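**Discrete fold encoding**
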Amino acid sequence: MENAYVQVYTGDGKGKTTAALGLAVRALGAGLDVYIGQFIKGMRYSELATLGTLDRALGAGRLEVRQFGRGCFIGREAEAADFEAARSGLDAARDAVLSEDWDLVILDEINVALSKGLLAECDVLDLLDRRPASVELVLTGRGAPGAVLARADLVTEMRCVKHYYEAGVQARDGVER
């Protein structure tokens, strides 16, 4: 892809993954090849059912989605397997980015993996520095470090103004998961 950039979607509001997946759908429709690596996540999310059909649609680009998590560990201490899953995810992301086989690489929740200490910031910054100019790279998740924000070409911060979670509404299939 010509003129590829680094994008970061961060903040405490809802919509970071949703925005990245919308970009993936747009890219696929344009015939671009998309790699999505999901950090932290290991559960089945509704978008995975749909994404699996998009790369088979007429004229769509190629899509690969991989999860590098054992289920959400927020609310419990990270275990050795959580660290290993994140490291495997970063290794796979590095391979995807450096191969130049993918036009768009989305690293979903990588900022959370960084903020929870599952990944070293210097390793992610190295990936950003080594990214070929032809690969669009998107990093999502709360708590993006300042050094990542500084290296990004586009930063969008989702800000929570009001959320129904505060009234006790749990994640709903098709909307939050």
DSSP finds six helices and six strands in the chain. The mean pLDDT is 89. Strands lie at 6-10, 34-39, 63-68, 104-108, 136-140, 154-157. Helices lie at 16-29, 46-54, 80-99, 110-115, 121-130, 146-151.
